[in-house]
# Entry
Amino acid sequence: MTYDIAHLRSTEFSEVTEGKTVYLNNASTGPIPRRALDALHAFNAMRAEPQRITLEHQFGTASRARELVARLINAAPAEIALMVNTSYGINLAARALGLGAGDVVIGCDKEFPANVYPWMALEREGVRFDMVPCRGALPDEDAIVAALDRPGVRALAISWVSFATGYRVDLARLGRECRSRGIYLVVDAIQGVGACALDVRDTLIDVLACGGQKWLLSPWGTGFVYVRDELVRKLEPHAVGWMATSASEDFSRLTDYVRPYVEDARRFEVITLPYQDFASFVVSLELIHELGPRAIETHIAGIIDRAVVWAQSRGDVTLITPAEREKRAGIVAIAPRDALAASARLTSAGVVHSLREGAIRLSPHCFNDWAEMEMALAVLADGG
# Structure
């Protein structure tokens, strides 16, 4: 399955494809498609005249977002709670899983801080957070699995895709290993969802958090958390929103204060959400579904394949990202001999990128083409 890349570039992403820059920094912030930007502006225009906003505009937007997210990761809408960022979803897991003194959470060294500090914060309550050392720059999955057998382990907190190296862990393997031991699998998926297709049923994930501003091409302040159905009714929210209970669904009886939480993942939402941003989130998700998550994954992988071959053919750079397709997603990390100088050359040439942990991070998306990556690699080669 393919899509018309030229049409996509001209109709939805001309602001980042027709200028003097090459945008290869989607692992930092993805652009907002034109149709999603229009939706954002339209909702903000209504917000300026609040008499035009109905409950359907607000809560219908949220409902549609849950439906589209669920479809993207093969979940049920009742398992999706809308969040404003990945960090909030990770904190939800850290606080709602009922961890206490003597419990151990396994993590991985060189993780993005959003999936470290919430677990470290539990140490004051007697929870131990053990980070498994990487093998070089990359996660050591064998060592992670072995760590699951340490006494007291209750949860594994892992990023699906490493922000710095682009390494994609085998979630299906880790899910099986965790489930067989009765250990929770908590996943930071912000660097994977949107760049790669994901099935939460196959991977046996318990809780997954993902912001929308990167690979989901949405505004800041959008995101979601997936909570496995069996856990939704078992876990109680640590931060309780005013619509977490069924009593608040009837706006004419808000002071009845009925205690039971709603039966789905909305119990974890802290309303009020930025509805204008979620209106844009909805339209971006619709575009991703229109193009096809698998088609997007194949397109991105094809661009990175050629960058991998280029890096492997040279003696003046080191390929940090694994060469195998199944071990990477939308990021290719390449370490030149002088990363700072290489980054400066790329910036001067108009190539938008990131410098992470001593390597140049290039991250193409559905709208990028090989010529843009080729230009970036040519700039890197100039310093060889």
About this structure: Residues 293-312 form the longest helix (20 residues). Residues 130 and 248 are 40 Å apart (CA to CA). The longest strand covers residues 153-159.
